[in-house]
Amino acid sequence: YALTQEDQDNTPAPSGPWRNSTGWRLGGPAARRISLGTPDGGVSTVRVSGGRVPDGPVRVTVDNGPERRASLEFSSRRHAVLVLDGQETRYSLAPVYRGPVTPTWDNPTPAWPTELFLGNEGWSCRLELLTRETRLARVLAAIHREEGAADPEVRSPMPGTVVSVAVTDGDTVTAGQLLLSVEAMKMEHQLAAEVAGTVHISAKAGDLVRLDQVLATIHPTTHHPIKGA
């Protein structure tokens, strides 16, 4: 996602050193920085330097991690192959677009994807492309969030269909235990309990569900800080 973010807009690039998206400066172009919202409510910053996709490999760092060599090749609009430090991984992609398709005077930002769902052999992940405002909101929320807080409500990450339920209503579950799976955009999203306790299931296999719909609720058996409490 970060590797291709710069190329989402197909409009001609502005001319002149002060309008160059690579950040004109002595010593070469600045690294592109992309802020991604992670599923746990956090923020990860990805820096990409050393070229552009698909011209060749680039250098990538995530947060304060080591610099890694990466390249990306699309086999179709919904499938890509990522090579990271020589290790190849294939992903299914499902971008979500919000906002106007083309820039307008009151909304100059084109409709780049605001969210991206990644899938790989049953694994799935939702990422958000954050603006400065949404990044700041997440950072402030993390500061005020009570450490160790867990959400007892398990919600659908996007509109889809419940394909399986792994537990029975009233079962005792552990934190991280698989509860149910939702299929959306040809990918299966596995939803797990964030806290141990007794589960109440409010959906069954075959149900059509909405974005953010509550599919299960955990009643903790021991004290846990609860998100939003």
Helix/strand structural class: mainly beta
Share in β-strands: 35-45%
Number of helices: 1
Report Rg: 20 Å
Number of folding domains? 2
Low-confidence stretches: 7-13
Q: Major β-sheet, in short?
A: 8 strands, antiparallel, barrel
Mean pLDDT across every amino acid position: 77
Word description of this protein:
The structure is a single chain. This protein is mainly β. The protein folds into two domains: 5-142, Glycoprotein, Type 4 Pilin (2-Layer Sandwich); 150-220, OB fold (Dihydrolipoamide Acetyltransferase, E2P). It has one helix at 132-144, and strands at residues 32-37, 43-49, 58-62, 68-76, 79-84, 87-97, 113-120, 123-129, 153-155, 160-165, 172-173, 178-184, 187-192, 197-201, 208-209, 214-220. Strand 7 and strand 8 (123-129) form a beta hairpin. The longest helix has 13 residues, at 132-144. The radius of gyration is 20 Å and the shape is globular. Mean pLDDT is 77; it is low at 7-13.
Describe the structure using short key phrases.
single chain, 229 residues, Glycoprotein, Type 4 Pilin, 2 domains, 8-stranded antiparallel β-barrel, 1 helix, 6% helix, globular
